[in-house]
């Protein structure tokens, strides 16, 4: 194989042959065609395209940051920066003994609140079902929301979390990344908070650059000396 | 249109057209991807003197709700001409012509866009013609396809469009306004270059079977030229100037 990684746009033929089509590719005859703008990767038996643009599509087990839009008597509706609204059932927050007439949903979550949640269930017939019954999930009390493009979340995390660890160590900030492109940054030191936010925005803007980690480190260090 | 008599020479004896082009030469085309911050995807095209801006939203919630489809997403297209896009003020209300063009562009994009991945949602395409000079539907379709790709909506292929026509008994590529008004035939073609499939084909005028074949071939060649520019526009926005890594 002459070149394993390639920039592709919709309609580009990535390769032909006995490969398994994975994300963002379709099989047409024996040709494998990209369906989005991105970087194609050919593995031993499969082909996929890492998208560079596009909305967040919920996936089961993804950690997302949601914003409460409204609630009914049994559940909250959360904006998860996707084309679907997330549903958070009240039982999940109040526990099994939840009763619709005795408990007031607004006592736990009001509209506008940010919530770290996990996608418990989602398929094409239903809106995504969220859950907060896990460690580190639930209402987010403090921190700033940074919105980045969902397609750049993997870049922000970096290879085995290197990028996000770099930012966290340099600024002492606690960063929660939602797969939907919403990131919450909290830090006791206001300067560290600003730096961490700037670093995240930098990743969003320059995601396609190769030695981005070095540039981020440089930015984080140079500001520290000022 | 039977070819009205006019003093304008559409094709001179050297095979040069009224705007100085050769018979198989398209107008100057410039495409830019992106540019609108609030839209999910956007594109701007200059196709000769046509200037068209396209914004794409979605996939997003469908309003009104009854339009949504539980099996697939829906595509909605609005083609609109600005009041100042033509020499005499155009009433901004949608005309019969604009409703028709919205419909044909929608149907030309549908085979490419993989809406079945997003049930219960809508993808909205807004096309604003800022300046019109013949062949706006082709230019608008080409730009809409770039804007959809920019929005990250999965597509089987890009859709490129270009018109071909017949002027002074000769098949020509990319019909401009004068040629459209006074020429013998106008055939807009939408084409998926990699799948080699036609998604839009209209014909206004009369052609013999041979001319028809030649006209389709000429139009497809034009689409391929447009496709290269669409590709370049997207590569410029997403990969810098370089093509391959």
Structure, described:
Chain A is α+β, with helices and mostly antiparallel strands and 226 residues long. Chain A has three domains: 5-51, OB fold (Dihydrolipoamide Acetyltransferase, E2P), CATH 2.40.50.100; 63-140, Nucleic acid-binding proteins (OB fold (Dihydrolipoamide Acetyltransferase, E2P), Beta Barrel); 144-225, Ribosomal Protein S8, Chain: A, domain 1 (2-Layer Sandwich). Chain A is built from five helices and 16 strands. Chain A has helices at 90-94, 153-157, 162-171, 190-205, 212-225; strands spanning 5-8, 13-16, 20-21, 25-28, 31-34, 38-42, 46-51, 63-71, 75-79, 85-89, 114-123, 126-131, 138-140, 144-147, 174-177, 182-186. In chain A, strands 8, 9, 10, 11, 12 and 13 form a six-stranded antiparallel beta sheet that branches. In chain A, strands 1-6-7-3 form a four-stranded mixed beta sheet, with no helix packed on it. In chain A, a hairpin with a 3-residue loop joins β6 (38-42) and β7. Chain B is an alpha+beta fold. In chain B, 27% of the residues lie in helices and 29% in strands. Chain B contains four helices and ten strands; from the N terminus they run ββββαβαββαβββα. In chain B, a hairpin with a 4-residue loop joins β8 (185-192) and β9. The model of chain B has no long low-confidence stretch (mean pLDDT 93). The chains are: A alpha+beta (226), B alpha+beta (245).
């Amino acid at each position: 194989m002459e070149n394993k990684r390639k920039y592709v746009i919709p309609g580009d033929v990535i390769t032909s042959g006995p490969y398994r089509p994975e994300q963002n590719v379709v099989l047409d005859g024996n040709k494998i065609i990209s369906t989005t703008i991105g970087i194609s990767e050919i593995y031993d038996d499969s082909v996929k395209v890492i998208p560079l643009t596009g909305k967040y599509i919920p996936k089961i087990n993804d950690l997302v940051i949601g914003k409460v839009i409204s609630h009914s008597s049994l559940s909250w509706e959360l904006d998860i920066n996707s084309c679907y609204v997330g549903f958070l059932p009240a039982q999940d927050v109040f526990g099994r003994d939840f009763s619709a007439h005795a408990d007031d949903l607004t006592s736990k979550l009001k509209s506008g609140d940010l919530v770290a949640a996990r996608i418990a269930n989602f398929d094409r017939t239903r809106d995504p079902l969220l859950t907060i019954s896990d460690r580190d999930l639930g209402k987010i009390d403090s921190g700033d929301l940074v919105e980045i493009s969902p397609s750049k979340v993997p870049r922000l995390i970096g290879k085995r979390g290197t990028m996000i660890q770099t930012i966290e160590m340099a600024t002492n900030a606690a960063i929660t990344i939602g797969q939907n492109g919403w990131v919450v940054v909290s830090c006791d030191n206001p300067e560290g908070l600003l730096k961490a936010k700037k670093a995240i925005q930098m990743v969003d803007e320059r995601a396609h650059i190769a030695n981005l980690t070095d540039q981020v480190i440089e930015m984080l260090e140079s500001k520290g000396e000022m | 249109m039977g070819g009205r008599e006019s003093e304008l020479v559409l094709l001179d004896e050297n095979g040069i057209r009224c705007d100085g082009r050769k018979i198989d030469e398209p107008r100057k085309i410039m495409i830019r991807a992106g540019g609108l911050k609030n839209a999910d995807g956007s594109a701007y095209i200059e196709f000769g003197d046509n200037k068209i801006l396209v914004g794409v939203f979605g996939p997003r919630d469908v309003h009104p709700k009854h339009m949504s489809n539980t099996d697939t997403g829906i595509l909605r297209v609005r083609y609109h001409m600005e009041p100042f896009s033509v020499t005499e003020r155009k009433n901004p209300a949608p005309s019969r012509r604009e409703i028709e063009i919205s419909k044909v562009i929608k149907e030309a994009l549908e085979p490419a866009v993989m809406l079945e991945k997003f049930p219960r949602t809508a993808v909205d395409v807004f096309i604003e013609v800022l300046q019109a000079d013949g062949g706006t539907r082709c230019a608008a379709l080409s730009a809409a396809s770039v804007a959809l790709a920019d929005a990250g909506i999965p597509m089987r292929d890009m859709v490129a469009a270009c018109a071909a026509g017949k002027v002074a008994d000769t098949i020509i590529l990319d019909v401009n306004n004068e040629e459209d008004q006074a020429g013998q035939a106008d055939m807009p073609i939408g084409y998926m270059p990699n799948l080699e499939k036609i998604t839009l084909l209209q014909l206004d005028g009369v052609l013999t079977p041979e001319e028809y074949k030649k006209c389709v071939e000429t139009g497809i060649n034009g689409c391929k030229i447009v496709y290269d520019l669409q590709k370049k526009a997207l590569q410029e926005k997403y990969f810098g100037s370089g093509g391959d890594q």
